[in-house]
Design a protein that fits this description.
The complex is a heterodimer of chains A (about 100) and B (about 700). Helix content of chain A is about 15%, strand content about 30%. Classes of the chains: A alpha+beta (about 100), B alpha/beta (about 700).
Chain lengths: ~100, ~700
């Protein structure tokens, strides 16, 4: 499962990091490594980026960056209506991701 | 060793660890700001005299790590390696020790003379966290001094320890972090290989080996050029295979994980914190500020507030300064007999200096606002809220606030792009800012829209002009980011720091530094350019016009009309002479020379002159236009609106075309100057100038002909 697929309130453990080297380095420097337990805190008002919290650190990253972080779901919030993975309407200048 | 020598201290630490506040408290007023070579990162340096020793403190930029990825990290690393400060003080945020220690561990690996400042100790106590300092000192191999910049606690003890560390009077032996077996074996092997290479004598071999295993580009660069590389490469390959086989990951990740395990161990041994997962003040604020519904309105309100602070509050101050300068001019005027000298001093130098100084209130106020947002923790949230929109155009969430500031004035806006870390993000934002129609262009819109459109429509026309500017600006940024600036986009990965009240000293300090930088670096350039444009619109002088004016003046003087009438006629005559001189000057000739080029846009040479002089400042377009169109109008001075309406050279189409052209063409010299300063070289600025001229021409051409067609 990918970090970008988690829902708000979900708790998960990082199991792999297959992102672009710069993002991976940045995440590791901020203490996000294999075995880190995190919780998805919220999604930005416009649907991207997301905010996660782990070890007292509040971190924000774009979904495209969260895609490379593999996680194992520990505990799901199961609150309906706040799914993050849903496709949103794309504007004309949107990048292919 | 000379015990009395001066000491250099480098301050390092995570962003938001309170490094700058500590720096301010330590050095007080003895500070200066420079730049690190080659980058636009500010270098804050200060000193303090303690026990008869001069301690120079360099505040290095905030970093989480020492990998050479971001300019901050590179600067920090180079400073430590090359400048070899006597003491490296690592400022850690006491309440978030675990995360802060990652940098500490990396400093330990560099084997520098380290001193840890356990900062924000007041917060640690408030939260009921207990830290076993003795044990932690042993593990980190460094003295630890609890400090609080806010309460000014521990500063003397810190200085005392700095002197002790510098003199080698320490009681704590350095400690070494031992990695997991495979990594450790590889590190030892590579370090031994490196120690046999004579070219690398004096380098820290163990550290270099760790960096090589971490895939560190700079370490590669350093070692690759030497013969030992052949063996080292082999050892690296071997290590990579081993790590993959045993741990299913690469040495880089493994080393980071080992560091974190060491830190976790140290935390378990030394730190006790109350385990309640209690919501903090920050959580409550974020529930509102980052709320899915309220997030955007709050964000817009904050941006509006900053804008109001900068420009509405700045307005009376700017007006006051302008008044002072005009007062100085008026006082000087009667004292100067020679009209040319008068013009040089008053219209040239005084106006030039005034033109630089009037921006100061805006700059100071904006940076008070921005450094408050940055230090309080909201800036990162603003980026979080608006990033999605900005990302569509290839920009970063943090680009938004500088761009909005551009609606007031491009100069502080361009200076504000320093919050952006990646160079390409900064460049793209800087190039988009001049299209955000600044306050100085507004008088022209008001004049033209008011003269050629009925009141209800005039406002819509102006709104349309603003929208066009935004569209062109965003398009420019998007185009840049998807072509020439494609390479390095900054990842959005960012900490949302806890909210804090910024200390007054650091906010004031930021604003003061920006003001000084503006006056020193940009001010001289702007002044020179303003003087140049003044000269171009005054020289060469036509002596005939001067002579005729003198004759006319004398005739009015002896005529038998009333004093009031005399003054009025005199004013008209002088204005005409002035317009004639302008026509004769270099700027006037340039306007005429340009006419064939701007004719397709509906402009005659008079508008050409206005546009040329408008390079000094956009307000000047209106005043030049006022001077120049009055040439053809006899006697009775009516207001500019009436004159323009009756002028055959102006029409609705011309007015629209001129508004579009003014919106898009070359920004004022002050903006270009600050742009050069922030970008670092003239080349991009020159290319940008060519680009805006082209785009302004095309857009005005289309506007003019579309308007003609619709009429």
């Amino acid at each position: 499962m990918k970090l970008s697929e988690l829902k708000v309130g979900d708790r998960a453990e990082v199991v792999s990091m297959q992102t672009d080297p710069l993002v991976r380095r940045r995440l590791m420097d901020l203490g996000l490594i294999r075995g880190t337990e995190l919780k998805v805190l919220r999604v930005a008002p416009l649907g991207d980026p997301i905010e996660i919290v782990y070890k007292g650190l509040y971190l924000t990253l774009r979904k495209s960056e969260a895609e490379g972080v593999g996680v194992r779901l520990i505990d799901t919030a199961g609150v309906p209506g706040n799914a993050m993975g849903q496709k949103r309407h794309r504007m004309r200048f949107g990048r292919a991701s | 060793m000379n015990r009395r020598r001066d000491i250099t201290v480098a301050l390092t630490g995570n962003p938001n660890a309170g490094k700058s506040s500590l720096f301010n408290v330590m050095t007080g007023a003895h500070q200066r700001v420079g730049n690190f070579p080659g980058v636009t990162i500010e270098k804050h340096e200060g000193y303090v005299d303690y026990q008869g020793r001069r301690i120079t403190v360099v505040d290095l930029p905030g970093t989480y790590s020492l990998t050479p990825f971001s300019p901050e990290e590179i600067v920090t690393r180079h400073f430590i390696i090359e400048e070899k400060p006597d003491v490296v003080v690592n400022v850690v945020e006491g309440a978030n020790l675990e995360r802060n220690l990652l940098l500490t561990v990396q400093l330990m690996e560099m084997e520098v003379d380290l001193l840890v400042a356990l900062n924000m100790i007041d917060e640690v106590e408030e939260k009921g966290i207990s830290i076993d300092q003795k044990q932690l000192q042993k593990l980190l191999g460094s003295h630890i001094v609890p400090t609080s910049a806010r309460q000014k606690r521990g500063i003397d003890i810190l200085l005392d320890h700095i002197v002790r560390v510098a003199d080698g009077r320490i009681e704590i032996g350095k400690n070494k972090l031992v990695f997991s077996a495979e990594v450790e074996a590889a590190v030892t092997k590579i370090a031994t290989l490196l120690s046999h290479e004579r070219a690398l004598e004096g380098a820290n071999h163990r550290w270099l080996a760790i960096k090589l295993l971490e895939n560190d580009s700079e370490a590669y660069h350093q070692v690759q050029q030497h013969p030992v590389w052949v063996k080292v490469e082999l050892a690296l390959q071997e290590a990579i295979t081993e790590c993959e086989r045993l741990h299913r990951t690469d040495p880089e990740a493994l080393i980071t994980e080992d560091r974190h395990s060491f830190i976790r161990g140290a935390m378990q041994e030394c730190v006790r914190q109350p385990h309640a997962e209690r919501a903090t003040m920050t959580d409550y604020i974020d529930m509102v500020v980052l709320n899915r519904v309220l997030g955007i309105p709050v964000f817009l309100a904050v941006v509006w507030g900053i804008f109001q602070l900068t420009f509405s509050l700045g307005e009376p101050l700017t007006k006051g300064l302008e008044y002072l300068f005009s007062l100085a001019g008026a006082t000087l005027e009667p004292m100067l007999p020679d009209p040319l000298l008068k013009s040089i001093l008053i219209d040239g130098i005084l106006a030039g200096v005034g033109g630089v100084v009037v921006f100061l209130p805006n700059i100071v106020l904006l940076f008070i606002g921005l450094s408050f947002l940055e230090a309080s923790g909201y800036m990162a949230r603003a980026a979080f809220v608006i990033d999605k929109v900005m990302h569509r155009f290839g920009l970063h969430g943090k680009s938004f606030i500088p761009m909005v500031t551009g609606f007031g004035c491009s100069i502080p806006a361009i200076m504000a792009t320093r919050t952006l870390k990646s160079r390409s993000d900064r460049l793209a934002t800087i190039m988009a800012i001049p299209f955000m129609s600044c306050g100085a262009k507004l008088p022209l819109y008001v004049l033209l829209a008011g003269a050629f459109f009925p009141p209800g429509i005039a406002a819509n026309v102006m709104f349309g002009i603003y929208l066009l500017g935004i569209a062109v600006g965003l398009w420019t940024a998007w185009m840049l980011k998807s072509t020439v600036l494609k390479s390095d986009s900054e990842p959005f990965v960012m900490e949302l720091p806890p909210y804090r009240w910024p200390t007054l000293a650091s906010v004031v300090f930021q604003a003061r530094m920006k003001a000084v930088m503006y006056l020193k670096k940009a001010g001289t350039l702007i002044l020179a350019a303003v003087l140049l444009i003044w000269a171009a619109s005054n020289f060469p002088r036509n002596r005939e016009i001067d002579a005729r004016l003198a004759v006319e003046k004398a005739r009015i003087e002896v005529s038998d009309s009333s004093t009031e009438q005399k003054a009025e006629t005199l004013r008209v005559v002088e204005a005409k002479a002035q317009a004639a001189q302008l026509e004769y000057s270099v700027a006037g000739r340039a306007g005429k020379l340009l006419e064939p080029l701007i004719r397709p846009l509906g402009f005659d040479w008079r508008i050409g002159i206005a546009l040329v002089t408008g390079l000094a400042a956009k307000e000047v377009v209106v005043s030049t236009l006022g001077t120049i169109v009055s040439i053809g109008h006899s006697g009775q001075a009516s207001d500019l609106t009436t004159i323009l309406r009756s002028d055959p050279g102006f029409s609705r189409a011309t007015a629209l075309s001129l508004m579009v052209f003014t919106l898009l063409y070359v920004p004022c010299v002050a903006s270009l100057g600050i742009m050069k300063k922030e970008v670092g070289s003239w080349k991009p600025v020159i290319v940008f100038t060519g680009y805006v001229l082209l785009i302004a021409w095309v857009a005005s051409f289309v506007t003019y002909h579309a308007a003609l067609f619709m009429q």
